[in-house]
Specification:
anti-sigma factor antagonist activity, STAS_dom_sf, 3 helices, 30% strand, globular, Transcription Regulator spoIIAA, alpha/beta, 119 residues, five-stranded mixed beta sheet
């Protein structure tokens, strides 16, 4: 496991790449400030050919339209590059799940079981 633990406080916990799958751990509030801080990092990760990205959202406590836009942008960029984006760490009723349901985007993202974020 390549464990480069890239902290970008306060929104990005770490980024790990294993077998070509990049797992990005996000935490805190995904709002306008977070979206601005994370946009360049996610653009770098989704700007490669056939990116395989997992966003771990277990520690996200709040998300607004800016955070949702960030997720949708990453999804669009990955699809354009013939890659794969999956979300993990969602539980029924959490902030991200509720917003995805309310906006009708719950089926727009591939979801992973929390126990296996890199698979």
């Amino acid at each position: 496991m390549n464990d480069d633990h890239t902290p970008t406080w306060p929104y990005l916990g770490r980024t790990d790449t294993t077998d070509g799958v990049t797992v990005v751990v996000l935490h805190g509030e995904l709002d306008l400030l977070a979206a601005r801080a994370l946009a360049a990092t996610l653009d770098d990760l989704t700007g490669t050919r056939r990116p395989d990205l997992v966003l771990d959202l277990r520690a996200v406590t709040f998300i607004d339209c800016s955070g949702l836009s960030l997720l949708c942008r990453a999804r669009h960029r990955v699809r354009y590059a013939s890659g794969r984006l999956r979300l993990t760490g969602l539980t029924p009723g959490d902030a991200v799940s509720r917003l995805l349901e309310l906006t009708g985007l719950a089926d727009a993202f591939d979801l992973l079981d929390t126990a296996a974020p890199g698979r």
